[in-house]
Design brief:
The protein has 352 residues and is of the alpha/beta class. The protein has 3 domains: 40-192, P-loop containing nucleotide triphosphate hydrolases (Rossmann fold, 3-Layer(aba) Sandwich), CATH 3.40.50; 198-265, Helicase, Ruva Protein, domain 3, CATH 1.10.8; 275-339, Winged helix-like DNA-binding domain superfamily/Winged helix DNA-binding domain (Arc Repressor Mutant, subunit A), CATH 1.10.10.10. It has 16 helices and 10 strands. The strands form 3 sheets. The protein has a 6-stranded mixed β-sheet with strand order 1-3-4-7-2-8. Helix 5 packs parallel to helix 6 (132-144), helix 8 (198-211) packs across helix 10 (232-249) and helix 9 (218-226) runs parallel beside helix 11 (256-265). The longest helix has 18 residues, at 232-249. Bound molecules: adenine. Residues 35, 37, 42-45, 79, 82, 204, 207, 232, 236 line the site of adenine (ADE).
């Protein structure tokens, strides 16, 4: 078996001048890249999305044309970048990966678009953060594969159309609602990534453990899956933490007991909630009588920014039925009050 470094901090993606990262170069010895599935057969979960994509890929190959532009949306950590890489592999094409904040100046996006070859995939993460100018450069590029450029100065100003190769744009966002409709309308395939079931996460964990040569029992994997808040990125992170615990505190094998002990120490409860999730629910219960409370007020009380609350914490709390988003603000559900014995009992204490 290959020796695999699992150092999360390894900078596995080599940055290039054009603000993209090269996937070819990034398949090195790092943790994320080694465990990342490369073909649909290894990609667990998102079954309806995979079926749709497989048909689109087969049709595109038969027609010898690039795939339609694709937009993935949903909470972070569910595998949008991974899926884009899988698509590139299945299409036998190159992928260039960048994110909207890296495309600050018009020349950033123009440079990338002009460097593409026919059939290439351009992946733009956090696409809702693209600025207006870059977005407008993308419109004709996506629709008719050309760039609208101006040359010369004032009186001699001329507009020229520069053709670019037919490519596929894959956009990813945690906030589909923040995308402008002209941009959204240019994607042929729009799909939401769903939280993973415990069974799917168990498979992801077992696959990761095998790649990293970690000994894990079925019940150990299930115990981690249950506390991974439906998110493979979290599951993979927890596998490593539990592995460390197993090495130090027992025989290195991850079984149910080791998993549960390690996760208790990490203060991740049986619902997968961490200290911040519990603090959020606690604040609504204690300070705001169960809500509704506005997101800005909640963010200040919690000491987090609104974006992190909206993108990272809320989706899972809402999906689990603990939190409600109402027009008047965030509100605890009666289910949350029952589970955590709210409103005047400290959630942290009630859980451990
Ligand atoms: N690792 C992270 N996401 C994965 C997935 N969806 N399938 C398999 N392994 C993964």
């Amino acid at each position: 078996m290959a020796i695999i470094s699992d150092d999360e901090n390894l900078n596995h993606k080599k940055k290039r001048n054009d603000n993209t990262v090269s996937e070819e170069i990034s398949y090195d010895m790092s943790f994320e890249t080694n465990i990342r599935p490369k073909v649909f057969n290894d990609y667990i979960g998102q079954s309806s999305l995979k079926s749709t994509l497989k048909i689109s890929i087969e049709a595109a190959k038969k027609r010898e044309l690039p795939l339609d532009h694709i937009l993935f949306y949903g909470p972070p950590g569910l595998g949008k970048t991974t899926l884009a890489s899988v698509i590139a592999n299945e299409m036998n094409t190159n992928i260039k990966i960048t994110s909207a904040p890296a495309l600050e100046r018009p020349r950033d996006i123009i440079g990338i678009l002009m460097s593409l070859k026919a059939g290439d995939i351009l992946f733009i993460d956090e696409i809702h953060r693209l600025n207006k100018i870059s977005e407008e450069i993308l419109y004709p590029a996506m629709e008719d594969f050309y760039l609208d450029m101006t040359t010369g100065k004032s009186q001699t100003l001329k507009s020229v159309r520069i053709p670019i190769p037919k490519f596929t744009l894959i956009g990813a966002t945690t906030k589909a609602g923040s995308l402008s409709s002209p941009l959204r309308d240019r994607f042929g395939i729009i799909h939401r990534l769903e939280f993973y079931t415990d069974e799917e996460l168990t498979k992801v964990i077992k696959r990761t453990a095998e790649i990293l040569n970690i000994d894990i029992e079925e019940n150990g994997a299930i115990a981690i899956a249950k506390r991974s808040r439906g998110t493979p990125r979290i599951a993979n992170r927890l596998v490593k933490r539990v592995r460390d615990f197993a090495i130090v505190k027992s025989n290195g094998i991850i079984d149910e007991k080791t998993s549960n002990e390690a996760l208790d120490i990490l203060q991740i409860d049986k619902f997968g909630l961490d200290n911040t999730d519990r603090a959020l629910l606690n604040i609504i219960a204690e300070k705001y009588d169960g809500g509704p409370v506005g997101i800005e007020t909640l963010a200040t009380a919690l000491g987090e920014d609104t974006k992190t609350i909206e993108d990272v914490y809320e989706p899972y709390l809402v999906q689990k039925g603990f939190l409600q988003r109402t027009p008047r603000g965030r509100k605890l559900t009666s289910f949350a009050c029952k589970c955590f014995n709210l409103k005047n009992i400290d959630i942290q204490k009630s859980l451990f």
